[in-house]
Amino acid sequence: MMSSRLAGTALCRPLSHVPLPHGPALRPTADMITSSLLHRCPAAPAPPQTASLWPPRFSLPRCASTLSAPAQASEEEKAAKKAGTAGKVPQGEGSAQQEAVVSYWGVSPSRLVKDDGSEWRWTCFKPWETYQADLSIDLQKHHAPTTFLDKLALRTVKALRWPTDIFFQRRYACRAMMLETVAAVPGMVGGVLLHLKSLRRFEHSGGWIKALLEEAENERMHLMTFMEVAQPRWYERALVLAVQGVFFNAYFLGYLLSPKFAHRVVGYLEEEAIHSYTEFLKDIDRGAIEDLPAPAIALDYWRLPQGSTLRDVVMVIRADEAHHRDVNHFASDIHYQGLELKTTPAPLGYH
Hints:
Elements: H1 2-12, H2 30-40, H3 75-83, H4 148-168, H5 172-183, H6 185-201, H7 208-226, H8 234-257, H9 259-285, H10 296-301, H11 310-336
Helix pairs in contact: 4-9, 5-7, 5-9, 6-7, 6-8, 7-11, 8-9, 9-11
């Protein structure tokens, strides 16, 4: 017994400095010790080339971009794996569940719930971005053109409405969906130009960057809602590509040359939008357009009660357009008074 212990001690002493990998320790067996002794004996013939379990062979882990070893999983992730729900994200925008992207950088989508405890399934907007539309706003307000630029802006809008009426006729659902692809452009263009101006001059914007971007996002949500009501045809999609490209560049140049003219144009565009949605409501009321149940995205975005219909959706969207009308006419009036937008606080959250 003493000789075998001494032999084991003599054998393990040289191996005491070998770094071991993190994991369960391997205890040498009698066969391993015998094999190692044979390797140390010069007179013994060389053993065949076989894989050896002791000492273990290992290499350092590679560290390269997103293929590196992931960070230690949290307790919640471990519990999710046990429950079989790991790698899943909430069902968003009414589509099927998608696999969550495993990222080396630890970025993961937020998981939210509604007030009633149900899962929040929309990824294009969050619960704190929802609101109840102000339906008490005056829909009859109109800016009477007095200056040359005002008259030019009104005539430009009237000229743009003429081909739209011919193309869409009284198909107000398709008309609204297509026009929202254009209505979301001015707020984004104005916000970007004000953002760049703020950077160039090292100055605040008075909140107008956020106000205009809020307008653009709100118009985009109108489009996302009408996408649930009417699907565009291929030629209508092609029309969007052409009109959006022309309108974006024209409005970009117009805003650079005269912001007061650009905002006045949008103000008159919103007045025409109010008129179009009013005609939309008339067709719903007289039965020409079916009053379908409101899309789920509309119920959550405008906090509409269960059982709301398409008519309720058109009502809140028309109210949004009236608020956009006021904001852009107000911005144009600021420029007409020789001031800059930054001098007047922006109406943030004014939907």
